Amino acid sequence: MKLKIAIQKSGRLNEDSVRILKECGIDLSTGLNKLRSEAYNFPLEVLFLRDDDIPQYVEDGVADAGIVGENIVYEMNKKIKVVEKLGFGKCRLSIAVPKNTEYKSAADLKGKKIATSYPLILGNYLKKQKVRSKIETVSGSVEIAPSVGLADAICDLVSSGSTLFANGLKEAEVIFKSEAVLVSCEKLEKEKAAILKKLVFRMKAVKRSRHSKYVLLNAPNNKLDTICKILPGMKSPTILPLVEKGWSSVHSVIDEEKFWEIIEQLKENGAQGILVVPIEKMVL
Ligand code: ATP
Ligand code: ZN
């Protein structure tokens, strides 16, 4: 038995979706068929689809699982389960208005026409804000809607904001934050559920390792207490004596985000020969 997983055929999520499977130790055959691929060292079959179609395929059970942006999951509103956030494909769904429009709060959208490919998420947001606007649903090139006179504002995905800027728009309101997630069919047969569980276990290990670095350093013994407090580690740091008297080698795992701050503190406290090494997998 194989678990069928749907991923984006081409586009922003394709490469990272293939990569996370690869980092989970799953090798896909690169056969002639571009729509389907099989893993030869894990019970997995991969279907390559348009991202918008993935929730429906998973709801229908044509695919057992999928990798898709949360924006699509919530907009499509299918009966599927979000199993795990995957940490890539990060973007935000924002309302943007022409650069020279004054914008203070959502109330300024009252009576305005907003073009979007996300009528459901936008509609829910406006309802919550108790603002009545007209939603104009379009399927692409949303950002040109104001300049061609189709709408007063837009609601679209943003990552850097450069597309908005190029179209004379400014971001007014972030209404939804999104990243790629692993989704699954609500009811999976036992064997498939077990394969999914294995996959999730591996994905968690890969995800965790991305934020962490392994640090090795030398420290004078009289500074070990302070240094161990700076380095929390997974449990507690490992300390090994150096041949040179009065010195030890300290090993630990640190969070990527705190990296520079921690390194500075370590140096101030007498640490020397600091090595920082990437971690490939991390299992707790
Ligand atoms: P498809 O042909 O599969 O329908 P698409 O054109 O709808 O592709 P892409 O532009 O490849 O989709 O985006 C896929 C997903 O990538 C989005 O749904 C979103 O979750 C994520 N994403 C990340 N950053 C951005 C961004 N700046 N703009 C749009 N989508 C982004
Ligand atoms: Zn799409």
What would you call the shape? Answer: flat
- By CATH reckoning, the class of the largest domain would read Alpha Beta
CATH topology of the largest domain: D-Maltodextrin-Binding Protein, domain 2
Note the quaternary state here: single chain
CATH 2nd-level architecture of the largest domain: 3-Layer(aba) Sandwich
The percent range for helix content is 25-40%
Radius of gyration: 24 Å
Distinct compounds present: adenosine-5'-triphosphate, zinc ion
Distance between the termini: 28 Å
- Largest beta sheet: what is the strand line-up? 2-3-1-4-11-5
Low-confidence segments, given as residue ranges, are none
The SS-based structural class is: alpha/beta
Instruction: Please indicate the percent range of residues in DSSP E strands (runs of 2 or more).
Output: 25-35%
User: Structurally, how many domains make up the residues?
Assistant: 3
Order of helices and strands: EHEEHEHEEEHEEHEEHEHEEHE
- Count of alpha and pi helical runs: 8
